[in-house]
């Protein structure tokens, strides 16, 4: 599930999931004052230069045999699931170059690219929808993440990682290119090179927007300023669980100060929240 909310100068949250109401939340909840807007999946919201569905689609399990028991025989069912999502208005798909285990490393990106190419839409049933279905494919936004592997030490190597993702998906441009995790605690010099890699892939037009994943508030402030000084807007910050609220409370002052379009994703709850 994904929820899209409008940013304001003062943001407070009150999450209501499923059929629950805000009355069921404790009065101390960081989410208490949020009113969840109602969206249909085919409605879209702006996130910088991108127009995305309020519901995103995660593909971590694709190609992952260790945690999710992936097998090649699942591909047909995965294609059907992808088709169903797109036909119902979902156009935001999350992946990463490290998704997939062993020899299947990068398999998630390969499958996503394949499913986009093979998406049939309604072409076989209604010829007058051919133009519409081509537009649907063009409107799909891929948000992929590039791993901060220890051998990726230069901006050029990070740009090459982006190019490899483009090759795997057989597309010309990525919607959101993201640094998968911060190396600040163990390789700060490498992280600066990776930031420069984000700048380079944006300047080269390989990605339409850039973002980060697994970043805390201090590093978010640093990379936001670093990119902003170089004319590159930071459009997304991923992996924020809505269950433990401590991190959310730490993040809120940052969100209020610097963000005009922010994307979160929760690993546990598969929740995306976009501010725009």
UniProtKB/TrEMBL annotation:
Keywords per UniProt: NADP, Oxidoreductase
Molecular functions (GO terms): oxidoreductase activity
Designated name of the protein: NADP-dependent oxidoreductase domain-containing protein
Domain NADP-dependent oxidoreductase stretches: 54-228
GO cellular component labels: cytoplasm
